[in-house]
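Worked problem 6 (solution included).
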Amino acid sequence: MAERVYKVVAPTGGASHEDLYGFRAAIYEPPPVEQKEADPKGAKSKRAAALLPILLILVLGALAVLIIPKLTKSNAPPQYVDLGTRRFDSAGLGARLIARWEGSTAYQLYIDPLDPQQTAGFQAVTVNLSRPVSVVIRLLDSTGAVACQKEVVLPTPAPITDSSNISQALLPMQTAGGDMIQNIAGPDGQIAEITISGGLPCSLKQYQSLKTWEFFTNFPTLDDQDNWLKHQKLIDADASKKSHPEDGGSGFSARSLHLPAAIEDDDVIVGENPQRGTLDTEGGRVFMVGVTGLRNRTAEWQVFPAAIHFHCDKNGACVLTRVNSRSSLQARLIR
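Solution. The predicted structure is:
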């Protein structure tokens, strides 16, 4: 078979290459791009989406401002805990304790007679304490265990010789440990309450665990209070007596009594008068020991009430002894 031969024939009639093949450009010309109108709703959505994180941050910040202080407040300890009242029957006392949180634990203790009729004896002891009186406060948690405790030793007040004037006894006093003591007068003018306030050795955790409390004291018993009241009445009676030339203005004769015969008996010393150098007894007797004699007494003779045995000759010269002392006192019976 004869081979076919193809030749490129030049355009005739003056037609150019562009005239013959220009259709190709028309076929492959890209279509015009359609111009769409702006979408205002879409733009708003984009702006809202952009603002959403900012709004979320603002909302969370507002919630933090409102909620965090409440959470913090709920975790804060209560400003005070009223632990209620307790009794100490042997001394006829009732007491109420309030614990407080002031950056550290503090307390307020109120002590008063259980029976208003005991107020006179309560006052007689309070203004003339014959020995150091302490109060032990024990604070307990819900299990009954001791969370913390404290002992307060009451300061010894200046003796009051006139029970009708107790203004000095109402002045605040401070213990050696820094606690404040205040005697409070009742409606009748007699001391009807002792308030004590100060700090407690309780941590914040211990303070938050407090549920109840108890207290102990060596405050004079009801019998001792009665004896002190009798002593105070003796002092008041002496003060009300008219002065005599031979008594030096003391209110009673300082001369020894002349007795029909020697006497020997038992009695109870319930008080003293350091300025006069005398000892007063439950039986109404007054022994003159002298100011120097009182000052030089051994310790056991300075605690009242004190049961004694005495022997006096007919000239009123006496010897006083007591069971728990190896020493005796020389005295004169003047009443």
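Discussion: The CA atoms of residues 132 and 188 lie 27 Å apart.
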